[in-house]
Structures are given as structure tokens and as C-alpha cells.
Amino acid sequence: MSESVDCLIVGAGPAGIAAGLELTRHGWSVLLIDKADFPRDKVCGGFIGPENKPLLSRYGVLDELLNQGAREVTHIHLSTPDGNSVRIPMGSTKGEYALGFSRKMFDALLLKQARRQGIAFHDMTVIRKTVAREGSHHIALKNMRTGMDWEIEARHLIRATGAGHRSAHSSGRLFGVAALFDQCRDMQSDVIMHFISQGHAGINRFEKDTVNVCYVIKEELFCQCEGSHEKIWDVFLNSNPGMRRQMEGARRLTPWKTTYLDLNTPRCFFDGTFYCAGDAVGLIHPVAGGGISMALSSGSMLGELLGQHRPQAVDARRLARQYRGMWMQRFLAPCVVSHWAGALGHHRPLAETTIKLLKTNEVFIKALFNLFHKPTELKECV
Questions:
Q1: pTM, entire model
Q2: Residue 148: which region, alpha, beta or left (left: phi > 0; alpha: psi -120 to 50)?
Q3: Which of 102, 123, 138, 139 lies 20 to 30 Å from 49 when distance is taken between CA atoms?
Q4: Which residues span the domain enclosing 286?
């Protein structure tokens, strides 16, 4: 098999699909590949802020998400080991809501729209070799399901494969672990964050009356518990009374799944071959709940920027500088502040003090939420 496309996108998550949808809107031909076997689950909080609803509508998935059971989230609920807690309305507008859903459902709906827009997709497919030649890239691909090898030619390449490789020496590593539960108490329409020393657990309702429990801990705690999910779970239940009450009688439905995040990975916008989108650029701390939002927004930003040019007339390095400037303007402050918020939340005395202050000044946490979840206007890309 041999073909030629304007852009090959590696990674079929929100960032990759958003970039592809914007490119096809401008008439580019796009091939999308992913090494995973779709549909697939992801270790993820499954939360997307209210600022993304215009983009979700633009891509034709907002109504489908709601029809298939995505849960409206109207409040944020934070709790600490000493029993302090605060519950705050979502956003600054009355009646505003975010959404909770599984990545399996969300990515499948986005992929459905991508195919409707003419984007070809191959799962379980990896790049074996890339050679730059005469203004384009000659790429050898392999499908791991069928064993088939083939070559394509692509003028441009986008990497949207997630957070990248684990570095050998880093003090910023976090481990994320998630499973689905049912029969959790007092969920209401909240996304709930229970803090302990060296970590927090995010609890969010998903479709089909399931509840996603996704905890994030520092590597030190992960090693202290010898990587045992049962030991880590006991630490959470014994450390935070609010979480212990909420999970009393709850039943785990799926096995624990683990991933890692290296918050100190250098940002990469363009490596001379691939443009980067989503977590492949850089990470926002999970405490901000903005990972899916940043992936979707950065993918749409990059796709719109590229799409303004004819595929054969892109000045790659100039466009990369423009993309970097726009990304930094939109996402640098949320990323930096999220790292500080994560450091506070994962340090017990500081977390206790912070929650006490927030209980008397809810305006501050609303401002913090609005910083993490500022809408990305596509007109910024023009």
C-alpha cells in the first residue's frame, strides 16, 4: 500500500483528532494512526470544563456526549485529611456545568466525527522509519494487528501521543491510577478531590451510573507502598475521613490501571520533524483538571494555524515559532500555577491552610478555576 497525504497525525486522542478536524476543514488530507487497539480506556480523570462546550459543539460531539450519558458537573468539592472541605459552584455563571465521561466514549465519538470528515484512521499502527526527502517525509508504517507494512508520503507530521517517555532522573514524577466503581455515596453533581500527603484522589461520575476514581501520587509514596494498589488505597482511606465515608460500601468494577506523568519533561513544540500537540507539548498538573481541555484546545490551535496555509507553502520553523507564542500566551500561566497548586495540595499542612482560606474566600478558587479553564478562541489563530 502506498499513499500521499498532507499531514500524518500520530495519536488519536483529543489533541490529534482536533488538529485533524481543523486541517480537513481547510481542505487538507489527513491520515491518523495510533498504536492502541481502539476503542480503548485511558487512565484519566474524565473531566472537561465548561469552556470547551463551543469546541465540542463545533466538532459535533456535545449532544452525542449528553445523549450517551455524559454527566453534568456543577460543583467542585475539595477535602483534606483533617476533615476540612469546601464546595464551590462550577464557573462564574449560574447554571454552568462541566462534563464527566470515560475517555473510551469521548475518544470514540471524536473518532467517529473524524471519519465522517474524511480522515482515514488505522489503529495498532506504528512508525518504523521516517526519512525527510524533497520537502516531505517518507514514512514506513506497520500494523501490529495484521503485520502489514506499507509506506506513505506526508508533507507534515504531528505528534499527539501523550506525555512522552519517562526520564531517568526527575523529581517531578507522579503516578496516576484509575478504576471504575459504583455505589459511591454523596456524589451529587460534583467532581470531588480528596487530598492526602503526597497525593490526591479525583472522583467523578461517568456514563452508565459508574464513578471514576483516579488518584495521583508522588513517586515516593508509590515506592513506599511497593507499587501495590491495595496498599495505596488503604493509605487514602486511612488518611482522609471524607474519602473514607464516601467510599464506604462502594464496589470496584474494573482493575486498577496505572500511568505516570513527568512534570519536568521539557516542552516541545516542533522538533524539526514533528509538531507537537496536547501532552506531547507539556503537562498541566492533574490537580487543575485541565488535561483534556488543554489537549483539545492545543490540537485545534495547531490545526487551525497549519490549515491557514497551503500544505506545500508552510514555513515550518516560522509557523512553529508562532504556535509556541500562542501556546505560551494561552497555557503557560495555567501550567505554572497548576504546579504550585499541586505542590500545595500534596503537602498536608499547606493543604489544610489553603482549604480554610478558600472556605472564607470562594472568589479566589473561582478565579483559579477560570485561569485553568479559560476558553480558547479560534479567532486567536487568525
A1: 0.93
A2: beta
A3: 123
A4: 2-165+263-381
